[in-house]
Write a structure and sequence with these properties.
The protein is of the alpha/beta class and about 450 residues long. Among the domains are: about 50-195, Nucleotidyltransferase, domain 5, CATH 3.30.420.40; about 240-285 and about 315-425, Nucleotidyltransferase, domain 5, CATH 3.30.420. It is about 35% helix and about 20% strand. It has helices at about 115-125, 155-160, 170-185, 205, 210-215, 225-240, 290-300, 305-315, 315-320, 330-335, 340-365, 375-380, 380-385, 400-405, 425-444; strands at about 50-55, 60-70, 75-85, 90-95, 100-105, 135-140, 150, 190-195, 250-255, 255-265, 265-270, 370, 415-420. The strands form two sheets. Strands 5-4-3-2-1-6-8-7 form an eight-stranded mixed beta sheet, with helices on both faces. A hairpin with a 3-residue loop joins strand 3 and strand 4 (about 90-95). The termini are far apart.
Length: about 450
């Protein structure tokens, strides 16, 4: 194809020569955010002077955590917003011991999870006035954001351009950033990008075999769940020392699922690509699919792109195959009497097993296999089925330890150590926020 003279416009994909410069003044937001009573945060708070709030927002769900900052951050509060049916959100705030402190039901909003009632409660109980900073999980950072950034109007403008790449997460994250900027303009906010961790992937592993010009414009494999993998790697280094720098495969198996090949403490390949849709079978996402099948649906079945997007992201995966549920717990319970549920579980495990084999080849061997996230941490049957048949690689599970969700679930004789490590993306966000604010303080 002759592209001479053609100018491609792919939004915020193309990397600028330098990242946008973030001023050190507070981000000023719009004046139209909902009113929050008692919103009088301490101005100009620095790392160490108050707690840091981490927010991990989806389209209608949210996980959050408030950490007290000391030598090592200590959890004070956990925040969870879940969708209830088609019209409501359920908010729950608990203390560090799991004791429920606040709960409420709120109507679903197109703007994302309901932050106003959360901040009303935080303000009424004295947390907002001493808030040092807020960190946000931002799923897609494109080519330009390769490390956490203090959020400024310029950076917020750049992030707006990336929304088409992540319509499930990014709009809600940006709505949260704007809400906080409007109500608490002096509270620093930091964006922590899921894609940043994977910028170490070799060029050959980040390419698609399409025209070179598209790669140069940003059509490439980015990878996601980076905050989770970064946390797992830090935990693994505490447990294994230099062993964490060996050949490691980490499997983040939750409603969103991915796998990463790690070597020398760096990401060298990962299953998600240009968007979080590529790779493993997920709760409602298809994972890998022949693009020709999508062209067929568009051209022959006349499926509109928006409908295809919804189908691949919201109606496929475990839900699409089982025709009943995207929840692995439900499918495991039904598998004995429902062949469609059984097939969905089989496909999930088969695809994951293939990736373990592929990444073992890419790494030239394997030293440690790590399971993490909801399914990876708490579904021994899934771990067993993924590892079954991989004995030739040197993987040998201990059935009892696997059933107990033990920290190490391989036998002492296994050539490859198999671990279960709970992830904590919110704590990873807090660590990044603290580092960014300390760096800003040193520069001042």
């Amino acid at each position: 194809m002759d592209n001479s003279g053609e100018k491609r416009a792919l939004g915020g994909l193309k990397a600028p020569s330098e990242p946008p410069n973030a001023p050190l003044t507070g981000l000023k937001g719009p004046s139209s955010a909902p009113n929050v009573k008692g919103d009088s945060p301490a101005g100009g708070a620095k790392a160490g002077s108050g707690p840091i709030l981490a927010l991990n927002a989806g389209s209608s769900t949210l996980k959050g955590a408030l950490y007290r900052i000391g030598t090592e951050p200590q959890l004070e509060l956990s925040i969870k917003v879940d969708r209830v049916g088609d019209s409501k959100n359920h908010i729950a705030i608990s203390d560090q011991n799991g004791n429920l402190k606040f709960e409420s039901e709120q109507p679903l909003s197109a703007d994302g999870p309901p932050l106003a009632p959360i901040f009303e409660w935080l303000a009424a109980n004295g947390y907002v006035s001493r808030l040092a900073a807020v960190g946000h999980r931002v799923v897609h950072g494109g080519m330009q954001f390769q490390k956490p950034q203090r959020i400024s109007p310029d950076i917020l403008q750049e992030l707006e351009k990336l929304k088409p790449l992540d319509p499930d997460h990014l709009p809600a994250a940006l709505a949260g950033i704007r809400f906080i900027a409007a109500k608490f303009a002096d509270v620093p906010q930091v964006a922590c990008f899921d894609t940043s961790f994977h910028h170490t992937i070799p060029r050959i592993a980040s390419r698609y075999a399409i025209e070179r010009c598209y790669y140069d414009e940003g059509i490439r494999r980015y990878g996601f769940h980076g905050l989770s993998y970064e946390y797992i790697l830090q935990e693994l280094r505490e447990m294994e020392g230099d062993g964490a720098d060996g050949r490691v495969i980490a499997a983040h198996l939750g409603s969103g699922a991915s796998m990463a090949a790690l070597h020398d403490g760096r990401s060298v390949d990962t299953s998600m690509g240009f968007t979080p849709l590529e790779g493993l079978v997920m709760s409602t996402r298809s994972g890998d699919i022949d693009p020709g099948a999508l062209l067929y649906l568009i051209e022959q079945e006349k499926m509109p792109p928006r409908e295809l997007d919804r189908n691949l992201n919201k109606e496929s995966g475990l839900l699409g195959v089982s025709e009943s549920s995207g929840d692995m717990r439900t499918l495991l319970e039904k598998a004995g009497r429902d062949p469609r549920a059984a097939e969905a579980v089989d496909l999930f495990c088969y695809r994951a097993k293939k990736y373990v084999g592929a990444y073992t080849a890419a790494l030239g061997g394997l030293d440690i296999l790590v399971f993490t996230a909801g399914i990876g941490e708490r579904a021994p049957a899934i771990r067993q089925r993924i590892c079954e048949g991989l004995e030739f690689l040197g993987i040998e599970l201990d059935p009892k330890r696997n059933e107990e969700n033990a920290a190490v679930i391989s036998t002492p004789q296994s050539r490859i150590k198999v671990r279960v490590i709970p992830t904590n993306e919110e704590l990873m966000i807090v660590r990044h926020v603290r580092h960014v604010l300390d760096r800003v303080g040193a520069a001042c």
